Amino acid sequence: MLIQPGELLAQINSPADLKKFPKDKLVQICDELRQFIVDNVSVYGGHFGASLGVVELTVALHYILNTPEDQLVWDVGHQAYGHKILTGRRDLFHTNRVYGGLSGFPKRKESIYDTFGVGHSSTSISAALGMAVASKYKGIKKQHVAVIGDGSMTGGMAFEAMNHAGVSDSNLLIILNDNCMSIDPNVGALKDYLTDITTSHTYNKVKDEVWKVLGKFSKFGSSAQEVISKVEGAIKSAVLKQSNLFESLNLRYFGPVDGHDVNHLAEILKDMRDIPGPKILHCVTVKGKGYAPAENGNKTTWHAPGTFDKVTGEIFKKTPSVPQAPKYQDVFGNTLVELAEADDRIMGVTPAMPSGSSLNIMMKAMPERAFDVGIAEQHAVTFSAGLATQGLVPFCNIYSTFMQRAYDQVVHDVCLQNLPVVLCLDRAGFAGADGPTHHGAYDISYFRCVPNIVVSAPMNEEELRNMMYSASLHNGPYSIRYPRGKGVMPEWKTPFRKIPAGQGRIIKEGEEVAILTIGHIGNYAVEACETLKKEGLNPAHYDMRFVKPLDEEMLHEVFGKFKKVITIEDGCLMGGFGSAILEWMMDHGYQSQIKRLGIPDAVIEHGEQMELHKECGFDPEGIAEAVRSMTDVVKAL
């Protein structure tokens, strides 16, 4: 079903078309754009609340800026749906996040209006500043705008970029989209600081008067501008009883302003084009604005609700007829509480993903022992290391893709000191519709080369519980990776059993070919073996459980018996599990034919997990075909 746009939106295929409308039509365009997003996401799913919150800002930016000549960078990109629709992708928007369709995030190769590929937080200011410095170097006059949320502003990289921007004298505008949310509610001192600014009636009243008076003197040139800036800053500091954080970094601060008044935003952006140097505009918005269930309901739920009834706001949930296996993340969350109840050394840490990682279960049950540290993966890891030095056992839960941002801290602060930090990597393997910025493809490779760390992956929920229990008893770094989505065991709450580090298990005996798997993807091998059994083939299957240390006794058995071996992983082939097996084989003088299945050395786009597994050849049928090819059996057509 192709969603039909409103009367005015139907005429907009580019920002140039938007500019043809008089200013008094902007409110209607915003209404139509918001409705188009609601209509599409309710049917096809996707991120929701963030884009609704910036409809007016998006329209104002493209109405005033000369995009794509002017450079517009969206932080993370959850909020860029309106941007995509206004920049020539309206009629393809129903393919958003679908295999082969539009990306859910801005992407350079998708559109010239997407100036920088995004997906991780806190990158926009650095990127836009780089563009601004390049333009200054080339002598080109253009606008450079970074739109960043207050959640992303908690990331250390954003502060590093602002610190540099303040001394760059470049044409950079930072727009702070302040809605008090990232995916979950924001935490920390910055949130409190922004709340002070936005709720200070005295400050806002004085700020308006200052703008009216000082604005009249702007025509007198740079010397007057310098005086204006000093007077402005002094008044702001006096009213707030503290220095302005942003102006202390030499960024001219404007705001806060209503982020839902499109005409006022357009006027402000028009005026700010003529103000030189780095500056920040503080816009106060409401996540989910204009759609009552999202605006007034649970903001975390409406971040990406799935499909829903747009009239009633009912989110569609499938009701299974038989008991279902739980999500791995929920097994983690509940198991951590269970372990913590029995061991008072155990703590929980996550960088701004309590609901996504299910650490919110522990935060509710034991608030003094579970910490959301904001979008700050580096801090999360080193904070955990600090806890570990004091005899505690922190479980630091970070999505695999975001753990990349804390790699130095894992190496320098955890592994080199051999501290007992448990690194739980959610969303390992393909992340699905979120695409390549969120795929957890590289953690096996980048962890197994670091000294002291155990690298593990459970094949099911029972193994996840046992690995968590084993990790809590291990005196050193321990990583556990598991995928997004459901496991395979409806009856998952089994008694804890310690698994010695580096001990695999035999799933089934077999002949001619040995299949070695790591993690959840081993369940695909079980399915493939059932298919092959009907064809008279009987490969053996080993669940290795650990990439580091490897089960050497088991590998001696495998390579002593089998001359044909298949390795399977839902991680990158370059330096991954299969590479580890090859290295071990060569080091120990064995000679077997090995076929490695996993993620190739390529960027794999978005789609359902099974679609991507099939594309890469390690879905159940791909595994079966690999066995057939090694046994010279061709499947009958």
Q: Determine and state the CATH class of the largest domain.
A: Alpha Beta
Query: CATH superfamily of the largest domain, called what?
Result: Thiamin diphosphate (ThDP)-binding fold, Pyr/PP domains
- Count of strand segments: 17
CATH topology of the largest domain: Rossmann fold
Mean pLDDT: 90
Characterize the largest beta sheet: strand count, sense, and whether it forms a barrel. Answer: 7 strands, mixed
Low-pLDDT segments, ≥5 res: 201-206, 213-224
- State the share of residues found in helices, binned by percent: 40-55%
How far do the termini sit from each other?
A: 35 Å
| Beta fraction | 5-15%
Strand order within the widest beta sheet: 7-6-8-9-11-10-15
Question: What features would you describe in this structure?
Answer:
It contains 26 helices and 17 strands. With 637 residues, the protein is of the alpha/beta class. The chain folds into three domains: 220 residues, Thiamin diphosphate (ThDP)-binding fold, Pyr/PP domains (Rossmann fold), CATH 3.40.50; 154 residues, Thiamin diphosphate (ThDP)-binding fold, Pyr/PP domains (Rossmann fold); 126 residues, Rossmann fold (3-Layer(aba) Sandwich). The chain has a seven-stranded mixed beta sheet, sandwiched between helices. It has a five-stranded parallel beta sheet with strand order 1-2-3-5-4, sandwiched between helices. Helix 22 links the parallel strand 13 and strand 14. Helix 2 packs across helix 4, helix 4 crosses helix 12 and helix 9 runs antiparallel to helix 10. The chain is globular. About 3% of the residues have low confidence.
